[in-house]
Write a structure and sequence with these properties.
Order of helices and strands: HEHEHEEH
Radius of gyration: 17 Å
Number of helices: 4
Shape: globular
Strand order of the largest sheet: 2-1-3-4
């Protein structure tokens, strides 16, 4: 009889699952983000995709993301003191945090959100 293949768990998978549980338990709050971009350039699209992927992977169902094009809403950029783009602002839960760049440094963003990936050593 042929047995079905079982999915092998890796340390990274375990860490991701632990982080999701920690985020759900520790932060019953809703995360509120504003992502400021300049038009629909490749860099802007990359930042939007990276932030959405990060949110879906680590805080699924616990976030709200507003994308603001500063070309279309320059007053919003000045009100929020945006000096570079893309810029991600975490409005809630407090404290307010800012991240600048294409949002590819997942570990730094997670640390800034007070969500840490715990790694296991084998």
């Amino acid at each position: 009889m042929i047995e079905p293949m079982q999915k092998k768990k890796t340390a990274n998978t375990d860490a991701t699952e632990a982080l999701k549980k920690t985020a759900g338990d520790k932060y019953n709050n809703q995360y509120v983000f504003r992502l400021f971009v300049t038009g629909m350039s490749n860099r802007s699209q990359e930042a939007i995709e990276n932030v959405r992927d990060l949110c879906e992977k680590y805080i699924t169902g616990h976030y709200e993301l507003e994308v603001i094009d500063i070309y279309q809403h320059p007053h919003s950029a000045s009100e929020n003191q945006i000096l570079a783009s893309p810029t991600l602002i975490k409005k809630l839960p407090l404290p307010l945090r800012r991240f600048v760049g294409n949002m590819t440094k997942t570990e730094k963003i997670l640390a800034g959100l007070d969500l840490r990936i715990e790694t296991t050593h084998e």
